[in-house]
Specification:
- The protein is globular, with a radius of gyration of 23 Å.
- Helix 1 packs parallel to helix 8 and helix 10 runs parallel beside helix 12.
- Strand 24 and strand 25 form a beta hairpin.
- Helix content is 25%, strand content 28%.
- The mean pLDDT is 93.
- The chain has three domains: 173 residues, 3-Layer(bba) Sandwich (FAD/NAD(P)-binding domain); 123 residues, 3-Layer(bba) Sandwich (FAD/NAD(P)-binding domain); 97 residues, FAD/NAD-linked reductase, C-terminal dimerisation domain (Enolase-like, domain 1, 2-Layer Sandwich).
- By secondary structure, it is α/β, with parallel strands linked by helices.
- The chain contains 13 helices and 26 strands.
- The strands form seven sheets. The protein has a five-stranded parallel beta sheet with strand order 3-2-1-7-19. Strands 9-16-10-11-12 form a five-stranded parallel beta sheet. A five-stranded antiparallel beta sheet has the order 22-23-26-25-24, with helices on both faces.
- The chain binds flavin-adenine dinucleotide.
């Protein structure tokens, strides 16, 4: 079998290493526009907490020694499905028996005048981080346009670098796709007290060059009432974090079914059974709400990649869908949401909430007496000590009926531990493994691919 993987990010890397750990003599080829690395550690490289060498998940040399054939810094440009060939830039092509499409996503800038000018940066790729590291310096005024998850991953590095920070968000609150209004209000208050300027309900309309060499951002009313009146702000550096889109253009015309992303079934196969898709390009089922969506998060890409690596060597396991989870920490305050945190159409508005002094907030969304989603905000050192984030995630994942413990959580939302222990969620989750067995046999050392980047 000739296995071909396109994209060496989280999904592709996990597929290849799983595949080769299960069948070391497998014939596998990786085609990737970039050397394999983890985007989620880029904020730590931006803040210089780690070196560039720590960003990479595995080196080309190591992959070659493991037996993979490599086409690094090469792009796939099309598919000839009838001939089972992947077309590459430069005119070459590769034959496959099965193929994984794991090309991830790219950042998208809004089409406003001046957006492509000097001193305007993205933060999605390693190259973006390298450029931004050269641009920031203590005292610099930095404006981040878009106050979503990606913006929040770089709040700490920029504050630690001594930058003065302004967040600009079109929606009425920060993290609009991760937090409800009450949770966002706690976070916004915390950040403002620590000197971060926040403009919500503000739409970026134009970026201009000011005479003093700075950038001038002109803002109009965004999606809130009454909305920000026309206003402006200046910055030395502008970072655009307004959204991403799956890298699928090269597959238009391939005949594969594409909706929000590549539509996949329970085995993560696309509409062509010889072709799998994983990570930010795959449209999967949300295990909690049942909705179809692209779940552009690290855990989903990792799990799907591992399952496909196993399936490619004849050991398929069903994918039961992903669970949304996002955790950010900004200036010492942690915010997390899981599952059906907004209480959307699937479960109706059945939420309970609680607040406590010191910037603590909880919201629980119920499906009968099961926890379907949660939002949690609090000082990071306290949440870490309590481990409530982990326990709430476990309660949602295990989907255990909580019986009388639901009432306890609804009345006393900060007493998670009792409900977690009483529910038996830990016992339910502990034996669950993605591939139906430990990652490697317990009586053998870990495969050489694990943890080696040289
Ligand atoms: C700054 C930052 C912080 C993040 N933090 C978190 C976090 O804390 N938690 C979380 O859950 N998620 C986080 N994410 C999101 C997470 O990194 C992505 O969901 C994850 O990387 C998706 O994995 P993937 O394999 O689908 O795609 P990617 O990791 O993006 O890999 C795709 C690969 O495909 C290559 N490629 C693209 N097109 C082609 C082509 N035509 N031919 C060949 N190769 C191609 C790309 O160069 C890339 O190497 C973060 C992302 C960023 C940018």
């Amino acid at each position: 079998m000739k296995h071909v993987v396109v994209g060496g990010g989280t999904a592709g890397f996990n597929a290849i290493t799983t595949l080769l750990s299960l069948q070391p003599d497998a014939d596998v080829t990786l085609v990737s526009a970039e050397t394999p690395y983890a985007r989620m550690v880029l904020p730590y490289y931006l803040s210089s907490e780690i070196d560039e060498s720590n960003v990479y998940t595995i080196s080309p040399g190591r992959l070659t020694r493991m037996g993979a054939k490599l086409h690094i810094r090469q792009r796939a440009t099309g598919l000839d499905r009838a001939a089972k060939r992947l077309l590459l830039d430069g005119g070459a092509s590769l034959e496959y028996d099965d193929l994984l499409l794991a090309t991830g996503s790219s950042s998208v800038r809004p089409p406003v005048p001046g957006i492509d000018g000097a001193k305007v940066y993205d933060h999605w790729t390693l190259a973006d981080t390298q450029a931004l590291r050269r641009a920031i310096r203590p005292g610099a005024q930095v404006a981040i346009v878009g106050a979503g998850f990606i913006a929040f991953t770089i709040v700490n590095p920029l504050l630690h670098a001594g930058c003065r920070l302004t967040l600009v968000e079109r929606e009425p609150r920060v993290l609009p796709r991760m937090l409800n209004a009450a949770a966002a209000e706690v976070l916004e208050g915390w950040l403002r007290e620590r000197g971060v300027a926040i403009h919500t309900g503000a739409n970026l309309e134009r970026i201009e060059d000011a005479p003093d060499g700075k950038k001038r951002l002109l803002l109009g009313a965004g999606n809130s009432e009454p909305g920000t009146r026309n206003s402006e702000l200046t910055a030395d550096v502008v970072i655009v974090a307004t959204g991403i889109k799956p890298n699928l253009e090269w597959l238009r015309g391939s005949g594969l079914e594409i909706n929000h992303g590549l539509v996949v079934d329970e085995q993560l196969r696309t509409s062509d059974p010889a072709i799998y898709a994983a990570g930010d390009v795959a449209e999967i089922t949300d295990a909690i709400t049942g909705q179809r969506l692209v779940m552009a998060i690290e855990t989903a890409a990792m799990e799907q990649g591992r399952l496909i690596g196993s399936a490619m060597v004849g050991q398929p396991r069903p994918y039961h869908g992903g669970m949304l989870m996002n955790v950010v920490e900004a200036a010492g305050l942690q915010a997390a949401s899981f599952g059906d945190w907004s209480g959307g159409p699937a479960h109706g508005e059945r939420a309970t909430e609680g607040r406590a002094a010191g910037a603590h907030y909880r919201r629980y969304v119920w499906d009968g007496d099961r926890l379907a989603g949660a939002v949690i905000v609090g000082p990071a050192h306290q949440l870490a000590g309590e481990n409530d984030i982990g326990m709430l995630k476990g309660l949602i994942q295990a989907r255990r009926p909580l019986g009388p413990w639901k009432e306890l959580l609804a009345q006393r939302p900060f007493e998670v531990r009792k409900a977690y222990l009483a529910s038996g969620a830990a016992g339910e989750l502990l034996p669950r493994t993605l591939l139906g067995r430990p990652s490697w046999p317990v009586d053998q050392p870990a495969p050489a691919c694990v943890g080696e980047t040289t």
